[in-house]
Amino acid sequence: MYKKITIMTLFMLSLALVLSMPFAAHALDFKKERLANGLTLIHVERHELPIVMATLLIKASPLQEDGTKAGTAYLTAKMLSEGTAKRKSADISEQIEFMGASLDTSVNDDYTTVSLAVLKKDVETGFDLFSDIVLHPAFSMEELTRRKTLLAGSLKKRQEEPSFIAGRELIKNLFGDFSYGRAVEGSIESIEKISRLDIINFYDANYRPDNAILVVVGDLGKDELAQLMTRFFSPWQAAKKQTVQQKPVQAKLTAYNQPRIEVIDKDVSQANIVMGRMGISRDNPDYYAVQVMNYIFGGGGFASRLMKTVRDEMGLTYSINSFFASTLYPGRFEIDVQTKNESADLVIKETLKQVRKMRTDGVTDGELADAKDYMIGSFLRRIETSKKIVDFMAAVEFYKLGGDYIERYREYISKVTKEDVSRMAKKYLSDEDLLIIVVGNKKKMKL
Amino acid sequence: MVHAIRRILLILVLIIPSYAFAGVQEFMLENGLKVIFIEDHKIPIANFQIWYKVGGIDEPAGKSGISHFLEHMMFKGTPNYGSKVFSNMIQKKGGMDNAFTTMDYTMYFQKLPSSEIQLSIDLESDRMKNLLLNQADLDAERSVVMEERRMRYEDDPKNILREEVAAAAIKVQAYRKPVIGWMEEIAAITRADMAEHYGIYYSPDNAFIIISGDVNPAELMPVIRKKFGVIPPAGAKIKRLKTVEPPQRGERIVYRDSETAEVPSIVIAYHVPRFPDKDSNALDILSSILSGGKSSRLYKRLVYEKRIALSVNADYEGINRDPYLFSVEATAAPGKDIKDVEKELLDEIAAISAQPPTKEEVQKAKNQVESGFVFARDSSFAEALYTGMFEIIGGWKLRDLYLEGIRKVTPEEVSDVARRYLTRENRTTGYLVPKKAGK
């Protein structure tokens, strides 16, 4: 009892110190090491709650797959939990769910993650299952067939979503055959072509300890984690095959000289509009200035210009926003908005007007200050929970943002000037090469 | 969204008692405003939530959606702070804010660096009393709400089906209409309607505040007293419409044609009691056994083994002001007959009605609730949210009762509630019919 109080007091004291310092100084204490098998391990101890979160990031994505068999990376990840050398698919879900734990996989344009969330008392069983699905997946023919059928069905269902159709059309036009030009799930046609051997080859080439980052956050001490690693992850060795990475194609920077509009007819009540052009990669030196610029333009929620004009003043939409998908290779800039069919034309005109205004007039001192205050002040929310910390740390390591990223973020944002923002708007917000995809009711839209 | 909330709820509710109210403190102002603190000092962030006991359930006939519409108008300023600056002011401090409306309540929240939490007190106390409700803003915002309805309902086949099923299953009680309201009624709401609704329900004695995260109640309470304490209570002005749904005496069937749906879906809904009725906990466990994860009965049967459905879900929301529905829904796999999907759903319901689930199945469901509760504590926002959901139905300490109840559920009780409530005469079945398929 006494001991508990002392620990509590010390904890409060350290917090009081942190509080008195500026925000960005709330550093995250982590340890990083490279294990004998080449796996990068990052550990953050958090003992307030009896939970453990682990995310394994594997540098495997559509970037490494054969484009004619799009969906290979996605299916490989989804197949991990569908059976291993010693466990059936049903045994894995039964064991995980009985503990009230979760074990999920996900794939984006740049990488795959396998994430475990488990109570401290079940951490051994959790790590056993976690390592088993990563190290010994069976990729059985029966399970693969089942998964492919289910995936094809979901893709068919997604055709119901006008925003899905519009987004798919946009990236196809921007990136062509490069992997960023297609959905990570692939298409109904492409997944049909994926064989068991394709999955096994993809797995062997990419699922390697020296090609992965493991982040563990939660109620585990250093020694406890070391024991778990020795027992469950030290047997992981790379297969002989090497990773083959697709060379990124030259981004299409077609100058249309005026915005190009493509209309896809669908009997819906709202026109779903996406506009886009090429953006930047995560390691582009313009990244932070671009983020500030985009916050003011369309990324800042209710504080953004697009939201203030198109929603608040004109009442034309429930939501409008813009973002730069800043990936390993240059990604896209995109604006998303929906409005009733009849006002599609008006929304497009107003949005383009805002693009031009941003390019010609720049931003005010007030807008710049607000944007920077938000970005610096909100940073802590990105590492607010253990769940957020595991994913954040994995991404920081993958994109090589540096061990001092949290400390330096304030500086990155602080030094962005009004001139920088203007320059970014001119460089990345052209309306002349904007591609506009509209999915809506052709008869009702005046386009 | 609603489903996600329910899942977390199930989980959350069970955990809080394990820290035995140690972190929770409650204060009552003279004007009837309750303030609840949940301290959590892991990180210097604080959540401010203000809950108004007004939602779809409190709306006059012909004014469906007025509570939600008013929620939108709450961001349109006061004489002290102009129109549309609310979120700007919060974001400037590194915070984020939003609000949502349910059938039972309207909740506004901000998440801020804990050193900035006084801003929430300033802004929320101001808009509880001084809302502008100016006509031009009202007109523009009406269009926004209509766009929201188009996005969330008209163009989302599954949601539109759920809306049809609720309207068919419930004849009298207010849960029959959607929270966002019917399009025609949203169009007809006037400024006077809105001012009246605001005047009745936005008062300290019809609200409570929950502050969670890195905060000190002793520091904040004087400020809260000063800002909120001066707002007069509404007292007897607060109206509660009491409606009682008559028992259903036969299956109801509703079809909804869809221009855009690619595959058919089905929703089957049954009238059930709400928490803390004695059957409520068993209904929660039942929904978890039927569809809690890939190892659940319906997923295994329809998606994994028979491969006739793309997805399947059972949903029970018991934490409500009035009794609502237990629903089971599924989306057919391409080329599969929705009638076969329906048959499998009903067969599984018949099976669990006839034969109690195994002890392991019940234990798994309980474990999911318990662990979910622990995981939810990772987020101070979620802790506050679930505390508030119990406060709405009578008091946050009901969480304890809920936990005790869940722990006591037996396999026989699960089977028993399935047998008594999931019956043919108590069900409403809705079919989503894709027009493309010609059928």
Could you walk me through the main structural features you see in this protein, from its secondary elements to its overall organization?
The complex is a heterodimer of chains A (447) and B (439). Chain A has 447 residues and is of the alpha+beta class. Chain A folds into two domains: 24-232, Metalloenzyme, LuxS/M16 peptidase-like (Cytochrome Bc1 Complex, Chain A, domain 1, 2-Layer Sandwich); 260-440, Cytochrome Bc1 Complex, Chain A, domain 1 (2-Layer Sandwich), CATH 3.30.830. Chain A contains 16 helices and eleven strands. In chain A, the strands form two sheets. Chain A has a six-stranded mixed β-sheet, sandwiched between helices. A five-stranded mixed β-sheet of chain A has the order 7-11-8-10-9, with helices on both faces. The radius of gyration of chain A is 24 Å and the shape is globular. Chain B has 439 residues and is an alpha+beta fold. Chain B has two domains: 8-237, Cytochrome Bc1 Complex, Chain A, domain 1 (2-Layer Sandwich), CATH 3.30.830.10; 252-356 and 410-434, Cytochrome Bc1 Complex, Chain A, domain 1. Helices cover 44% and strands 18% of the residues of chain B. Chain B has helices at residues 2-15, 66-73, 86-92, 118-129, 135-154, 157-169, 183-188, 191-201, 217-228, 280-291, 297-305, 338-354, 359-376, 380-392, 398-408, 411-421; strands at residues 24-28, 34-39, 45-52, 96-101, 106-113, 207-213, 252-258, 265-271, 309-316, 325-332, 427-434. In chain B, the strands form two sheets. Chain B has a six-stranded mixed β-sheet with strand order 1-2-6-3-5-4, with helices on both faces. In chain B, strands 7-11-8-10-9 form a five-stranded mixed β-sheet, with helices on both faces. The interface between A and B is large, with 71 and 70 residues.
